[in-house]
C-alpha cells in the first residue's frame, strides 16, 4: 500500500470510528439516569459506559490492525505479532502514550499516527461528555 493510500485509509478509519463514537455517546445519553432520577448514578453509568465503549473501540481497532498486519503490512514487524501484542500496541497508540516495546516500520506507522490522533480526540470528547454529566449532578445538588 502506497503512502497516499495509507494516509487516506488512516483518515477514513479515524472518521469511521469518530462517527461510531458519536452514536455511542447518543446511546449513553439515553441509558444514563436523567434529572431527578438518582443524579449521582448518572455519573457512574456514564463513566462505566465510557469505559466499556473505549475498551470496545481499541479492541475493535486492534482486530483491524491485526488483520492489516497479516494482509496489507506483513513486513511492519520482524515477526508477525500475536493478537495480544497487537492489542497492546493499539492501546498504547490509542492512549497517545507513544511508547511500546514493539517498533513498527513502513506504512503501518502512518496508521498508528492516525490512531493516536483518534484516541486523543475520542478520549477528550468523552472526558468533556463525562464532565458534562458531573456538572449536571453538581447543579442538581445545589438546587
Structure description:
The protein is mainly α. It has one domain (3-138). Helices cover 76% and strands 0% of the residues. It has 4 helices and no strands. The radius of gyration is 18 Å and the shape is elongated.
Morphology:
elongated
- Helix-residue proportion: over 70%
Residue stretches low in confidence (pLDDT < 50, at least 5 long) are: none
Q: What is the makeup of the main sheet?
A: none
The total tally of domains equals 1
The number of strands is: 0
End-to-end separation: 58 Å
Radius of gyration: 18 Å
- Supply the number of helical segments: 4
- Mean pLDDT across every amino acid position: 90
Order of helices and strands: HHHH
Structural class: mainly alpha
Strand content: under 5%
The gist of it:
This protein is an all-alpha fold.
Walk me through the topology:
Blueprint: H1 3-31, H2 39-71, H3 83-94, H4 108-142
Keywords: Membrane, Transmembrane, Transmembrane helix
Organism: Palleronia pelagia
InterPro entries: K_chnl_dom
Key attributes of the depicted protein:
membrane, mainly alpha
